User: Fold this.
Amino acid sequence: MSRSDDPHRDALPIDLFDFELPEARIALAPTPERDGARLLHVAPGGDVDRTVRDLPRLLRAGDVVVFNNSKVIPAQLAGVRPARTHGGGGDVAVDVTLHKAHPDQDGAALWDAFARPAKRLGEGDVVRFSDDFTARVVARDGATVRLRFNCSGADFRTALQRIGAPPLPPYIARKRATEAVDAQRYQTVYAEREGSVAAPTAGLHFTDRLLAEIDAVGARRVTTTLHVGAGTFLPVTAEDARAHKMHAEWGEVTAEAAGAVNDARAAGGRVVAVGTTAMRLLETAAAADGTLQPFNDETDIFITPGYDFRIVDCLMTNFHLPKSTLFMLVCAFCGIDRMQTAYAHAIARDYRFFSYGDACFLEWARG
Assistant:
């Protein structure tokens, strides 16, 4: 059976992607060691319980392992909207999560952000994050505001590093405050290019030692960039999953990266994507003939069962939320029934779920 031969191809009710997840399975903190997390190997022959340190044993000489080198910015800001001169009560505490940058405008950084309480903000209001770091609301649409900051470029990045905090996922932020360890652990060791407001979480498991062991087995490492937006946490509200609209994210596949992937595939090697972000970018940049092309643009690709994969052979990813676009993606890769079985296995054996949780290694035999 090919990957596109899914019995649910013509109907995608959201309930197909639901499952019962005990709250105790949700990881609120990272494991003591990055590569000490568990790894569920989901293979055609069945599920095998491993650890992340076993990953090099699952790779072959000639494979190419593709990472997302996007770096998480401290996008969580706490500020105050000062009391308005005419009405509106006193000062209002405001929490802001940056999620999409726009080109700088006349020496000012311009960002879309989720704000709480957004209803207390209006066009023209100023939010003060520190004595010398402020932003003016230039537009509001529901819970999203567009902010024009009082600085840009290196000055903006410096202020953000000084004032901001790691943008932990909502299901963690609701349970505990941000801690010092999050600044390190909610970031991959190979992060290079600033721009994400959510971590590419499969990569959080890697250490310099593990990367060296991947090199030692003869697999090639390649980096791409996809800046992860906060929209990754938005729920799917449509009853038919096909009606959901994905948020757009900026990504880049360089000519060098595309060449390395194409060379590996031509020589019989497998393409191993580390994370759903790397997979989505690779599949976005895939040509009809199955070659990978250089890419530098936004992508809103939405991968659901019925999708015909062109590039990726294996996927390392964390465990995802019920009814989420990411769970739909892994179901597209391995089949709905197969992934429901794998997730039931993981829940029964106390695997840890979501961003700080354990991981799985999904593989598919082509043909």
